């Protein structure tokens, strides 16, 4: 399994220069859009993990972070409208899970940053141009774990040597699963195992799938990774237990409901990477806006508001007819002579403020 990270390249495409920043700026409430094909907010475990990691980086929901969550509840045809709704809300970033949600978000906006979580190759899926130079507005984590499908069968054979027939539960409406099915069938042939494909497109089709599995009398059950199966994992686990079928899956959570083997990507690991990308995108966009103001001759008001969002206060003094002194201080530290973080002495107040802001930003972001 490989995790790919494209955020550094995306940052370059968004702001034209990489930034060396570690903490989120003060004073701004970030709006994070979440687009899920199936999970409601109360059941969205990955989002909970991501928010926990964002909290460690200073983003507190209800304080400086607002989450706009939209779920299609399994009705994928709703995703384009939900993605459009998030775009109209002008969220700072969209977190999209699985190919249908990523496609809907990318279609809805070519400018809003999208952090994807995908279980397939994002290049082959058309979401990025390449792993090295993704381009566009999509970054995130791709779980290139197709080779693990064969490994799960190997582990199953080791744990249960008498396994010869394996039922594979797949969602045929998930395009990622079709490729994995071919890899499983190839691996099964090598291990002299027979694959019985059982399809279920939604929760309402699971009972029919269970009945087919019972009739086919397999020796074990392999669950393909799909949001629907994840949400219905307890129901699937109960069936496997009652049928005395060894069950194999990607997810650790399946082991918690009775799977014999769970072998796949780490949810907490994925969540950490997603939070890092969201943090970098939010900070980069904020600093980019401030630098745009600096170059636009938009006036002192824009600069002071922008610097306040970076946690700086302005002191502007006219010393004589020849010049103005502008100094930015860490908020609340104006009276401490050691707290000055950027200053400039120029002939006009605008030039002084502009120079002081540039000096403060250079000190705060030496790599910028």
Task: Estimate percent helicity.
Answer: 40-55%
Number of DSSP strands?
13
Contiguous low-pLDDT stretches (5 residues minimum) are 1-26
Q: Can you say what the CATH homologous superfamily of the largest domain is? A: Response regulator
CATH class of the largest domain equals Alpha Beta
Second CATH tier, the architecture of the largest domain: 3-Layer(aba) Sandwich
The spatial strand order of the largest sheet comes to 2-1-3-4-5
How many domains? The number is: 3
Biggest sheet descriptor: 5 strands, parallel
Oligomer: single chain
Global outline: elongated
Number of helical regions:
13
How would you state the average pLDDT, rounded? 81
Q: Spell the H/E element sequence.
A: HEHEHEHEEHEHEHEHHEHEHHEEEH
SSE class: alpha/beta
Percent of residues in beta strands?
Answer: 15-25%
Quick recap of the structure?
It contains 13 helices and 13 strands. With 368 residues, it is an alpha/beta fold.
Task: Give a written overview of the molecule.
The protein is an alpha/beta fold and 368 residues long. It has three domains: 161 residues, 3-Layer(aba) Sandwich (Rossmann fold); 115 residues, Rossmann fold, CATH 3.40.50.2300; 68 residues, Double Stranded RNA Binding Domain (2-Layer Sandwich), CATH 3.30.160. It has 13 helices and 13 strands. α4 links the parallel β3 and β4. α3 packs across α4, α5 packs across α6 and α11 packs antiparallel against α12. It is elongated and about 95 Å long. The N terminus is likely disordered.
List the helices and strands and how they pair.
Layout: H1 7-15, E1 30-36, H2 45-56, E2 65-71, H3 79-88, E3 93-97, H4 98-108, E4 114-118, E5 138-142, H5 148-159, E6 165-170, H6 175-190, E7 194-199, H7 206-216, E8 220-223, H8 227-231, H9 233-242, E9 247-249, H10 252-255, E10 261-262, H11 267-296, H12 300-309, E11 312-320, E12 323-330, E13 340-346, H13 349-364
Parallel strand pairs: 1-2, 1-3, 3-4, 4-5, 6-7, 6-8, 8-9, 9-10
Antiparallel strand pairs: 11-12, 12-13
